[in-house]
Specification:
The structure is a homotrimer. Chain A has about 210 residues and is mostly helical. Chain A has 8 helices and no strands. Chain A starts with a helix and ends in a 10-residue tail after the last helix.
Chain lengths: ~210, ~210, ~210
């Protein structure tokens, strides 16, 4: 049951992250293959890291057509839109960043929940540390790999409540499950928390303290 | 049988990638250890990723002297040539790039076939997705790690038919094996396809479409 | 026994690397979460790589509170000092680099020994290649990941006897263990060698040969 919920939410995360990864790749002037490749890394990298860490080998992306097809279809759709309407696509940078931000937040939220679910399916839910940390890894992993591959310092290192939102969501979700709440309800609450944290952090420019003045 | 073929081709890939990785490291002004280290990453990184993904742990590079010695010998030979003849070595940049390109293509081709072979040896050949994707990972993995470590955006993201050549070769090779063709013959055809794709892509500046005008 | 020694030394390495990673993160203007995240990567990344390579899954960092707490406490302490005394903290750049260098050397030394120990605990000590190479991976892995994430070319590629010190220490330690020396004594000798190599390499600007004039 928890594995099925994790699977569905991972597909939601893959679709969102494929859109967001494609938009970054287009901005970085990747070619068609590079766009799909970067979308794959963004969409499938976090789950691959988690599967490796829990010893689920080969990771799902290497055995699941659902994963590969979801990432490919969503990435190619965005790429074709950008290719056909490239003037209007590139005309409105700010709006694009805004859209990207939403897909990114939904991806972060679904991946976090999916990561907790699939880790619990593999190692049980006795020890809180493992599913919470691997929820975080699933949530932020793909974005970090995308940033590393495009030579950007990962945004989670310096900007707004990003990884912290994922971590808070993972902790909340794990606690709700332990309290006996049904997985679907807990997942909705946890995803709402993560998306809300990201939304308010962006809107009100919340930042964590920096040591440099 | 398929594992033995994979082993031999992986050694060919390691030798080629060690040469190519060493030439990049020299250009990046690494010291002697850095050169060998970067050659190791380039030559052994793709196979280590694949072995990790199929749960062949510890990966072969940590247990096989053949892997380590091949990488070390080919890397040190190139480094010593560059050290002794550094004026003539650095005089002819274009020719060096050309040589590097060939080693890179041979490495890509042998690693792709080796990746398919060693994955089939581990998980069987029922499901096409796993050996094909891990052929690609083995083919491009070391180069991506080398690029990431030297702060270069991985070339496969923006330049000419590179990962696509590896993917096409992996698909062809898997299909030939399924059709019952002997491994060695299939490997020769697949490697010829990959090297030819790389050669023509470089010669005629084939590129995939970009979304930016 | 060897596993217990490895555990204790890994904690020493985690504490040292957390301090060093935090200092780098502050310099890179990360926020509070980014600082702790980068300290985690530096302090826990090498061990996570090693555990993955030996098939110890999930890696210790995902199951051990001792690992997580050590990294968090040492990182937050340094961050709070830098936050409270930020004028005097940033006034003396050279002294900070000097302190960082020492923590880095102690981390390199303890991680190398811990890596050899924990690999032997997992795969035995028959084959020298595996524990020696995984001692090196444990020693340098966290620093390489930290450098990659902050967009710096890993220092081990071009600067002074760094990875070589770790490798020499791992070889010495393995040999002493094979000769029957008690682990603790061997560990002290090996760590002294690594720290001394780093100290003299920094003091006398030892460098390996470069191929560029």
């Amino acid at each position: 049951m928890i594995e099925k919920l994790g699977f569905v939410l991972e597909l939601v995360g893959i679709a969102s992250a494929a859109v967001s990864g494609t938009m970054v790749a287009i901005e970085k002037k990747c070619d068609a293959f590079g766009v799909v490749f970067l979308a794959f890394i963004t969409a499938l990298g976090g789950g691959a890291l988690r599967d490796t860490m829990i010893g689920y080998l080969p990771p799902r992306l290497f055995t699941s057509y659902a994963y590969i097809l979801t990432a490919t279809i969503f990435s190619l759709t965005v790429f074709l839109i950008a290719l056909r309407h490239h003037e209007s696509y590139h005309a409105n940078k700010e709006k694009l960043d805004h859209i990207n931000n939403w897909f990114d937040a939904v991806g972060l939220a679904s991946f976090t929940v999916a990561g907790v679910d699939l880790t619990i399916a593999a190692v049980g839910m006795e020890a809180p540390l493992t599913p919470i940390l691997l929820g975080l890894v699933t949530g932020v992993g793909g974005g970090v790999l995308r940033d590393v591959l495009t030579g950007t310092m990962p945004r989670l290192l310096y900007k707004r409540i990003y990884a912290l939102a994922s971590l808070a969501g993972a902790v909340l979700y794990y606690m709700l499950l332990r309290l006996g709440m049904p997985g679907v309800l807990g997942a909705v609450l946890c995803m709402a928390l993560i998306v809300a944290l990201r939304f308010f952090a962006t809107k009100y420019h919340w930042n964590m303290p920096h040591a440099e003045p």
